[in-house]
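Reviewer comment 2.1 asked that we show a complete input and output for one of the modelled complexes. We chose the pyridoxal-5'-phosphate case, as it is the one discussed in the main text.
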Amino acid sequence: MIPTNISKTLFTDIANQFGTPVYVYHAEKIKEQYQKLLSAFEGTNTRFFYACKALTNINVLKYIKEIGCNIDCSSVNEVQLAVTAGFAPQNILYTSNNIDFSEIETAQALGVNINIDSISNLKKFGQKFGHSYPVGIRLRPNIMAGGNLKISTGHKDSKFGIPLEQIDKVLEVVKETNLRITALHIHTGSEIKDVEIFAKGIEVLFDIAQYFPDLEIIDLGGGFKVAYKPGDEVTDIEKLGKKVGEELALFEKKQGRKIGFWFEPGKFLVSEAGYFITKVNVVKDASTTVFAGVDSGLNHFIRPMFYGAYHVIENISNPNGPIKRYNVVGNICETDTFAEDRELNEVREGDLLLFYNAGAYGFEMASNYNSRYKPAEVLIRDGKAQLIRKRDVFEDLLRNQVGI
Ligand code: PLP
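Response of the prediction step:
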């Protein structure tokens, strides 16, 4: 079982008090993860921007700010949330992807850092702001990386970033519009185990750094792999920190100028800090398998169905029950299997099943599909559990609908 500092009694109390399904986040675990990064990269000129697409509850964002971490946003609304959470503009990064230029204008007006990922938007930015506003470029380095194709974003067929082979066009635009390029950005994927992938990214960006005299930052995006089950291989951040330190020194020696690194970790900061508790509605002994049907589904926690993600599940209501095998499934009108042929302590109707690693891309991807309510969210801090989002109610389903 994956270790957790939260007692199973507290999880049960939370389920009883706030109902199920419910997301639960552990603040101190987020801090522990951030401190691991600070320690691994100590002495290197590196800043971390939490990729808030993973989890944007405003209380979590405020906590992230409180522990001193910066924030990375993937939409202008996330930028607004970051501002609302109290982040200063210089600590906010907006890494856009296929967006309307008006979003970039809004971000510029707010004074945040911006990475642009298309030639057309780069040109518009240059025409409007010229040298007056520093900007970063998101490139596609043509590197295959990441846990699976859906979360692989830097390969040669990827929609993300400006293809590296178009660097001449980029330089033309920069020259024509007198742009001040201060950052080069790549994000090759999520769940990158191999430090060599990051090293390859550094190599690619260092190769072209010479063309950007105003360059201050190499931004390698996010993608640090965390453990989903005991024994899982994870990104060796100590090794990466060391590599970054060496590369920075080499760069300074070769090019006679200093730069810094930025990273945008999402999962690394919040995945293991999050849990999802569901209640078993029905145990169905079908002819080929026994289904444990819970009060949730792909509408609340889509990662297993969307990415084939593996999440540890524990029956916290019957920890000493005999081990049996189940297909853990949802209540949605598609086949929404959370886990197949999974060993669990005997599951009875009404039992609570606890899902691990649910902090990143869990609630954030939830919907009202099948007209079901989005789950509640609870934050545990200093041992105390507090509601940070109410479960939807019926009125929420009709909130923006217009009667004609
Ligand atoms: N940065 C960018 C540009 C991303 O697209 C993503 C994920 O989609 C991240 C950072 C965060 O990735 P992860 O959660 O794997 O760290």
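Residues 51, 54, 72, 95, 187, 190, 221-224, 264-268, 360 surround pyridoxal-5'-phosphate (CB under 6 Å). We note this here for comparison with the apo prediction described in Section 3.2.
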